[in-house]
């Protein structure tokens, strides 16, 4: 069956700033929009303000400055505050928040107070069918697996046909084996329902799997927004790059348009001569062999990880081991002195002044 929503809406945040009563600023001038029907992932480390932004959109928290719009209508802003129940915004929490003493149908029916009892029942059954759990309507939540409970929470949020669905770390309570399947099912249901969705996660891979676009937050500021590929290939700074892949970092100065590192000279066309730079090399960015190559290295340790192995390499001039991931079987079991070549596509060069370094430099 097709799962309808009332309309696919655009939810926009315009210059949102917020602080809790304790004083510290949680969000600083965040401007961002989820386009109609898209899944936007809000990604960032713990404490970066993701949940607070969702709470402001839902009307559980109020911003100090800025506006929230649903399509053209301001739902929160100077002198305007639409109560949560009038916003047409659904919420799914991390812990599913199902009522243990209510049947699954009654859990889903809970938010449908504006409808007559028979209409509410019908709409709740439609929502349960949408997530494939209609046969459990009269059962209680404890008989369901974690993944099924998550689907009930999703059905409950979708039952009132919200224009926008907000999901706060919706898969974090599931074990890793279940997570992939539930995530894929959730994405299918979101696509079918055509709701605009904002999904909070601190896991870059989850954001890449789910998001049509990703917005990365750090310390209450929006750092970069784009597709997974944009953020991976063209990160705006080493923080963004480091969120999507592990990096070896080196610092150096731009001399004759390039930065010298123990792994070679890397062009820095966008940087000023003499400027301090950070050169970041992804762990996947190495070719290794025992016959010959550009840079000599000695294997300090190697760890089998299945498809790939993790190498720690002593490289002349580097004051820390260089880390690399290569396909298992590339090096012989007893290999010690080897050669490495760096893959240019896995090297990113940044101006150092644009970033306070994370401290991870080789
Ligand atoms: N009710 C509150 N009162 C005071 N400070 C709070 C409150 N809730 C959150 N904070 C603080 O606000 C900041 C942002 O928290 P928020 O929960 O929005 O971040 P988050 O990115 O969702 O983090 P997490 O992934 O850990 O949930 C944190 O420093 C947090 O400690």
TrEMBL record:
Task: Cite the ABC transporter domain residue spans from the record.
Answer: 11-244
Gene Ontology terms: cellular component: membrane
Please name the SMART domains in this protein's record. AAA
Question: Does the record's keyword annotation contain Transcription regulation?
Answer: no
Q: Which GO terms describe its biological process?
A: quaternary ammonium group transport
Please verify whether the record's keywords include NADP: no
**Taxonomically, which superkingdom?**
Bacteria
- Pfam families in alphabetical order: ABC_tran (PF00005)
Task: List keywords of the entry alphabetically.
Answer: ATP-binding, Cell membrane, Ion transport, Iron, Iron transport, Membrane, Nucleotide-binding, Transport
Q: Which GO terms describe its molecular function?
A: ABC-type ferric iron transporter activity; ATP binding; ATP hydrolysis activity
Q: Which protein family is it in?
A: Belongs to the ABC transporter superfamily.
* Protein name according to UniProt: ABC transporter
């Amino acid at each position: 069956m097709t799962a309808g929503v009332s309309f696919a809406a655009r939810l926009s945040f315009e210059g949102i700033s917020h602080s809790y009563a304790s004083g510290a600023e949680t969000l600083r001038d965040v401007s961002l929009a989820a386009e109609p029907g898209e899944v936007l992932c809000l990604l960032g480390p713990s404490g970066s303000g993701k949940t607070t932004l969702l709470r402001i959109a839902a009307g559980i928290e109020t911003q100090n400055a800025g506006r929230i719009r649903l399509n053209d209508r301001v739902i929160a802003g100077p002198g305007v505050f639409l109560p949560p129940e009038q916003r047409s915004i659904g919420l799914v929490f991390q812990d599913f928040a199902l009522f243990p003493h209510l049947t699954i149908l009654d859990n889903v029916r809970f938010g449908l107070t504006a409808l007559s009892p028979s209409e509410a029942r019908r709409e709740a059954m439609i929502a349960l069918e949408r997530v494939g759990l209609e046969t459990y309507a009269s059962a209680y939540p404890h008989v369901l697996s974690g993944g099924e409970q998550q689907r009930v929470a999703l059905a409950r949020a979708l039952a009132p046909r919200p224009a926008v669905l907000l999901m706060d770390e919706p898969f974090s309570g599931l074990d890793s084996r279940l997570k992939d399947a539930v995530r894929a099912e959730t994405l299918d249901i979101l696509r079918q329902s055509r709701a605009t969705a904002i999904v909070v996660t601190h896991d870059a891979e989850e954001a890449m799997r789910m998001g049509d676009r990703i917005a990365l937050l750090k310390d209450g500021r929006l750092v970069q927004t784009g597709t997974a590929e944009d953020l991976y290939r063209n990160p705006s700074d080493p923080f963004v790059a480091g969120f999507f892949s592990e990096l070896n970092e080196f610092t150096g100065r731009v001399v004759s348009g390039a930065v010298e590192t123990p792994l070679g000279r890397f062009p820095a066309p966008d940087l000023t001569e003499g400027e301090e730079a950070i050169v970041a090399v992804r762990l996947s960015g190495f070719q290794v062999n025992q016959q010959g190559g550009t840079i000599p290295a000695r294997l300090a340790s190697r760890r089998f990880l299945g498809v790939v192995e993790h190498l720690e390499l002593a490289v002349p001039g580097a004051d820390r081991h260089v880390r690399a991931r290569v396909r298992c079987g590339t090096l012989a079991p007893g290999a010690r002195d080897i050669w490495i070549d760096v893959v240019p596509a896995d090297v990113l060069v940044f101006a150092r002044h644009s970033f306070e370094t994370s401290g991870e430099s080789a």
